[in-house]
Amino acid sequence: MKYFSSITFSILVAVSASHGQEKLLNSAHYKQAISSLANNKHPSTLLQSKLIAYIFLSPECPLSAYYIPLLNELHTNSKEAMVVGIVPGKSYSKQEVLNFVDKDKIKFPVYIDNKKKLVAVLGAAITPEAIVVSKGKHIVYKGAIDDKVENLGEKKVLSKHAYLENALTEISNNRTITITETKAVGCYINDI
Fold first, then answer.
1. For residue 177, is pLDDT > 60?
2. What does the mean pLDDT of the chain come to?
3. Rounded to whole angstroms, how far apart are CA atoms 94 and 19?
4. Nearest to residue 63, comparing CAs of 168, 188, 165, 179?
5. CA distances (Å), 91 to each of 71, 126, 176, 191, in order?
6. How far apart are CA 54 and CA 30, in angstroms?
7. β-pair type (51-56, 7-9)
8. Reduced to 3 states, what is the DSSP secondary structure of residue 126?
9. Cα 110 from chain centroid?
10. How far separated are the first and last CA of the chain, in Å rounded?
11. Sheet holding 23-24, edge to edge
């Protein structure tokens, strides 16, 4: 099964969080990574966006599918942030990614990072993992979408910390982001 051959499970507990740290991206590398996305016909849209929440996803990762309704809601309701799905690596064809988008009713754009350049530039390691980039090319949040899943196979009904939503709301309101980094829980992005 492709899922087991391409992805290694990981358990990362969201027990730590960083406050107030931003990482400035290398603009040239970021631009090259955006331009290399396999099905991205309009790279300038991403490069000029004020705020982008990149969500690294895998079509066969159960947690990726679990978070799609919340991500659709954030995409629909956010006034300033753009939610963008990224499927890393060469494990999935364009048609398989299109099937994933259709089956899970994904409302936000999903791109294929088959050379994993964006993975490298942003330092993504897990699916699902959220990495928020400001127009100034700073990583302003990186990690879990929320704290509903702290261990694989265990989900809370309600979250106490909506990390991604809070970060988007705070930066949209010109406030300092309270929590800038958490550890994502999910499947490792492998070398394929």
1. yes
2. 85
3. 38
4. 188
5. 23, 15, 38, 10
6. 13
7. unpaired
8. strand
9. 10
10. 14
11. 23-24, 138-143, 129-134, 51-56, 81-88, 110-113
Give residue 1's identity as a one-letter amino acid code.
Answer: M
Whole-angstrom CA distances from 89 to 23, 52, 95, 134, 150 are: 24, 20, 14, 24, 25
Task: Please give the Cα distance from 150 to 11 (Å, whole number).
Answer: 8
59, 62, 8, 54: which is closest to 187 by C-alpha?
Answer: 8
User: Once rounded to an integer, what is the mean pLDDT over residues 68-88?
Assistant: 94
Contact 132, 139 (CB under 8 A): yes
Structure tokens at 68: 């799609």
Amino acid found at 117: K
> Helix (H, G, I), strand (E, B), or coil: what is residue 10?
coil
Name the band, by pLDDT with cuts 50, 70 and 90, for residue 9: very low
pLDDT at 130 over 80: yes
| Cα 32 to Cα 118: distance, rounded to the nearest angstrom | 9
**Rounded to 5 degrees, what are φ and ψ at 113?**
-105, 70
